[in-house]
Amino acid sequence: MNKRILTLAVGGLLLTAAGFVADSHAEEAKKGLQFGGSMRGRYEAMSFSENADGSKKETRGRIRYRLRLDGKALINPKAQFYFRLASGTDSRSGNVTLGDPADYAPNALSIRYAALVYSPWDMGKLPDEKGHWKFDFGRVKNPYIWKGHGKDMMLWDGDISLTGAGTQFDRKLGDSGSIFVNAGYYAIDENGKGEKDPYLAPVQLGLLFGEGKTTFGIRGSYYYMNELDADFVSRGVNGENIDGSDGATSSGGNVEDGLTGSADGGRLAVVSTQAFASTALGSVPLTLSGGYSDNTSAKASVMFPGVGKNSIAYNIGLEGGAKKKALMLGAGWYHTEANAFPSQFIDSDLLDGYTNREGLLIYLSKTIMKSTDFNVQFFSSNAIATDPGLEGSANNAKRDRLQVDILYKF
For the chain, what is the radius of gyration of the CA atoms? Predict the structure, then answer.
């Protein structure tokens, strides 16, 4: 990472925000922390089919829990803070399996969010109150994922948070539309060896429009990653650094000289779009969603002749009903080729955190008591290709996973 640029950017952000705060004549905001969170219990069962070489991973079941403790504070009308502590230390999961570690050894809590939020105007609103603008810094929520418009799981695992600085802007367009922009600069790794640090610099533009029960939305995202090193590429291939040490999470599927065109790293540029349309069939809400992305930096492999770019990912889904009134049901199909995205960021439940896989998701959700949801998810996945060079992601790819949850929110 160019530390000089990042230092100037963050310094300018803080000074600008401090100036806005100093000039504010708004009434003093009520201070104090507000807390919330959730506790989830889960039964999970996995069944694997035989691999091409005749081996087979054993069927297993396990009971797990996930704890989240959220906090936020309004420091003054222009400054806020939020955080999340959660069980688990994997970057893509807060789940803890009962019996791990052995002999009732304690489980760890980790920091998932810890962010400062600054707004040029009070409560983040534009002066004409037709939109919002804010900046955040620290370990921040991923603003590049949609919530409430189907299962947005094509590229990002929903538990991943980003580290760096970003901005989010939205503004109304007439009576029935709005535009939004998200952008940022996020550190991926801090080498500390006199080497350049890998970073992510995304930009996202979207439109939302509609009236009443019928709404539409579309967004385009450009994910630019640069100064990627051999360790980053290696973690995408098999979850390990080049010295054999483990990365932050299990992953795999990227082709060593295919993701960026070089086993030594370099840059990566992914262009992605996602859209949804929501309406109601009588009193039943319906949402159709889908997306497509292309890693424009991917190259056909030289190390493994015959393995092409494998740069595409796409998804389509349909969701209907409402969990509070009756029952919400949904289904989706996801296809993620080997070099579509770094595998360490792929959803860990849907495709087991691997690329070179495709699969079906079926889910239901029902609110059974106040702040209490019953959820069921079924995932069925398989390898897209089994060519030499893709054996690692093809092994154990034919897998069915069932998850049954009770979720308490507080």
Answer: 22
